[in-house]
Design a protein that fits this description.
With 129 residues, chain A is an alpha+beta fold. Chain A has four helices and six strands. In chain A, α1 crosses α3 and α2 packs across α3. Chain A binds a DNA duplex (30 and 30 nucleotides) through α1 and α3. Chains A, B: It is found in: Cytoplasm.
DNA sequence: AGGAAGAGTGAGAACCGTTGTCAAATCGTG
DNA sequence: CACGATTTGACAACGGTTCTCACTCTTCCT
């Protein structure tokens, strides 16, 4: 049995903020957003808390093209993302076909302990002329 | 018309090394490998050369989970990778099914100008106990 | 409630991959 | 060969992230 994390003002602030956001944000953006809500939380703590939330599968983390880690509250379970590259709006998608394909390809080549990353980027309807 | 790059010892050394490797390597690993071949090339130059090769589509670049950019000589054309997370050995794979799935999902959600990233990580047969 | 134990916090330093700087070396053309 | 433009490389700078450690706060026990 793992130790439950303590219920601190900082963790509450981060978790509540994540509830209110609906796109991927960097740790630094989240830190800044907390300040603008007069909920000051140290940058280290923001990083630690987001990692903890990601470990607990309460947020998803993905790496942007320029190397930042982005976080977003997401539904549980394995899924992928369709992300608008203009406004950041994100749709969660599932692809059982893809999962099966990935497993089969890996197995055919003698690979085990498979994981995969799959993200789709595009321009959403409201960001198009 | 773009200016052709000069034919320097350093560029030749990097290009030749990439020919001999068959997995994704970080810029720093490539720099170290060059030293072990007595082909000293400055680290800045390694970075610059790899970026140039990637821009020219002569190598593929992808970001590892821990944020490093990894490079590998690859065949042209759209494909994905099955990468061993221990030894870096890489198999190029194609997934017409996945391509179609991604396009359909994007279209259903009103997204256009689609691109996607898909990499599969696992442990290859020879890296398993 | 009071208090001890120890998890959590945060300011700043450290870290690490990567990019920028600029004087010196090199390429290749005239 | 000589010249000008490109390239190189030692080193500094940068940016995101992690570490450190003294101090704070939660929690649990009585």
């Amino acid at each position: 049995m793992v130790e439950a994390p303590r219920n601190t003002r900082q963790r509450r602030a981060v978790a509540e903020l994540m509830e209110d956001l609906d796109g991927f944000r960097s740790a630094q953006q989240i830190h800044a957003l907390l300040e603008s809500r007069d909920q000051n939380v140290g940058l280290s703590t923001v990083y630690r808390t987001l990692q903890a939330l990601a470990d607990a599968d309460e947020v998803d983390a993905l790496r942007s093209d320029d190397g930042e880690t982005l976080y977003r509250r997401c539904s549980r379970g394995h899924h992928h993302h369709l992300v608008c590259r203009d406004c950041g709006r994100t749709v969660e998608v599932e692809g059982p076909t893809v999962e099966r394909w990935a497993d089969r390809v890996a197995e055919e080549n003698g690979f085990a302990d498979i994981s995969h990353t799959l993200e789709i980027f595009g321009t959403c309807a409201s960001c198009r002329p």
